[in-house]
Amino acid sequence: MTTADIDHPSETFDRLGRKIDPTDSSVAARYVLNDIYCSAWLSHAISALCEHRVPDFVGGEPTAIESIAKKAGLHAPTLYRALRALAANGIFEERGDGFFLHNDVSRLLCADHPYSWSGMARMWGHPSCMSAWMHYRKSLTDGQSGIKHAFGKTLYEHLAQDPATTKAFSDAMISNSAHAAVSISREFPFRNFKRVLDLGGGAGTLLHTILAENEHLEGVIFDLPELESLAKDSIRTADLASRCQFIAGNFLSEVPSGADLYLIKNSLWNWSDDHCIEILRNIRRAIGTTYGARFLLIEYVINSRNKKWTTAYDLQILNMPGGRARTEAEYKMLLLQAGLAVTETDIIEDQTLMLSAPVQ
Ligand SMILES: C[S@@+](CC[C@H](N)C(=O)[O-])C[C@H]1O[C@@H](n2cnc3c(N)ncnc32)[C@H](O)[C@@H]1O
Fold first, then answer.
1. What whole-number distance in Å separates Cα of residue 14 and Cα of residue 130?
2. Which of 6, 147, 172, 285 has its CA 20 to 30 Å from the CA of residue 109?
């Protein structure tokens, strides 16, 4: 026993080395709350740095803050404070005095990373998203989305009037899907199908990856007319014009027929139960009597593995599209109400895949 133990017999530290008081839990509780608020500020800093393309100006070797600030056109002392705070929290690495380099986390924020997260980072700090959060207290009173309170419109009505914001949100979806698309296209047996229709397929990140991996397949991206030029550009860039087409439409009204695999990824949670049932019934109608046709739902599901972050994303899903995160059982109930029964379930990365067949 040391003299320190005698002076402070009950001294204990939390995982970050901060002194806590075992006789007063409010000290540790304050640290927990404080960390959550700090994360929110760091998240704003990440978004703003990505807007200014700061990660693209940091190298693999230590780079002086003045050089980074000059390339990004920013105020060096203020940029230093941002990078110091992020480095202290595991994003970027600070070497010596005012020199920064990438670590694995910050590298993912570079625009040229194959699985870049820059689009997601920029969306979370986008003025539309932030304006919606300012109305969360009203959402709590009536269950309406923050976007509806902020702009008097649904998310997709709001996006339809603003091509720049549509592009920003599409970039975020590309970030969100880039890595999972590779895993899903390799692990799901697409070889069993001939023509895939991706509902709400956006710019086509998932479908392009599936088609590149499966040369026998044809595909259709089905999305709102606002996505048409972005999706057609990316079909051309991916050199898939002979096997991939874009169809503009509204899955709440009608889903085109002619595929043997209909899929929808990370889109159903944007919608209320009633809207989900409408979308699923339209899919069921499109399947009709096509022999062997299936519906593949790919979604972030609240389960014991994903609970911590899917329950947090559930708040964002209310905030922006006004939807909700669900459990697997809740999705199965919605599917059944549309005449679809789950035949297989799989988990790839953090996505749950539910394959269903028409109920006979
Ligand atoms: C959350 S994003 C998901 C995009 C993509 N599936 C992914 O995983 O990255 C939802 C997509 O649904 C599309 N969408 C929204 N409402 C739609 C509608 N009524 N009909 C068809 N597509 C719609 C959006 O334009 C957007 O591309």
1. 32
2. 147
